[in-house]
Amino acid sequence: MLAPVLFSGRRDLVMKYKLANDARPQAMTLVLAAVLSIALWFIPFAEILGYPFRLFVTFIHEGGHAIAALLTGNSVQSLSVAMNGSGETYTSQGGVLSQMLVSSAGYIGAMTYGALLLVLIRRAVAARIVLFGSAAVVLTLTIIFGVIKPLLAGAWLSLSGLPFTLLAGVLLSIGLFAVARFASARVATFIVSLLAVQCVLNALLDLKTVFFLSSPFAATVPTDALNMANATGVPALIWATLWIAASVMILIVALRQYVASRQKAFSPVTDLGLEKGNGLWSIPALPSASDQARYDKSA
């Protein structure tokens, strides 16, 4: 629970919240990860260090589209990630509600994944388990939707991005697995915090880009917001604004959980803090272009 601190005055009362004592070690780790992420943007040539994390966020973004498509009864033809950090997912085109859910699942999914990482490391889930799970997610998306689906569907447009998608997905999975298996508890926790920060920051920055691209004065560029506009008739700028608001709300909820005292049901574990601690796939034929939906993530 949040610990309230009450300050009294003559005419008004001000209620503030302070960081729970058992959240301080993880909060310090999170702050360091955020500072490092921001610093990499301003140091010349240092952005290459954040490049793997950028690709990770793109996999999560495109994976959100793919999972939403499957949950709404559609099929996924391909998922690809480009060298510049952008991505594309091709799915069969469902109804209006389906298109709305699939289009929204990219940016909202990336923000939700980052928020989930924050909650997991706060709620006594070992960082190693989180890293193993993230490696499995990236590898599954790569093999099934990045390789098997486009190969069996014979989609030549999607096959052009297959080599890099496969290389990036496999290397990311190996890297995450290696950190989980061989790194110290402190390092593993820091990497999870870095993944969470990268998901959150990249989702917000990408939404800012989509917001400006959705302006009536901007050139027409394929975006998820444009897909929403085509499906609903509501301007893309409105959808970009709603996604930004939803993402901020998700982040606020996660941060409130992060700063709150851990419930008694969750016992603390040593590798969460900064301190030293001891069936067959059915592959349908690729639909014609008019029956496909394309979901893009800008670089």
Describe the overall structure.
By secondary structure, the chain is mainly alpha-helical. The chain has a domain of 188 residues. It is 61% helix and 10% strand. The protein has 9 helices and 5 strands. A 3-stranded antiparallel beta sheet has the order 3-4-5. Helix 2 packs across helix 7 and helix 8 crosses helix 9. The radius of gyration is 21 Å and the shape is globular. The N terminus is likely disordered.
Low-confidence stretches: 1-17, 264-290
Largest sheet: 3 strands, antiparallel
User: Structural class, please?
Assistant: mainly alpha
Shape: globular
Number of helices: 9
**Average of the residue pLDDT scores:** 79
From the structure above, extract its key features.
globular; mainly alpha; three-stranded antiparallel beta sheet; 299 residues
Question: What is this structure, in a nutshell?
Answer:
This protein is mainly alpha-helical and 299 residues long.
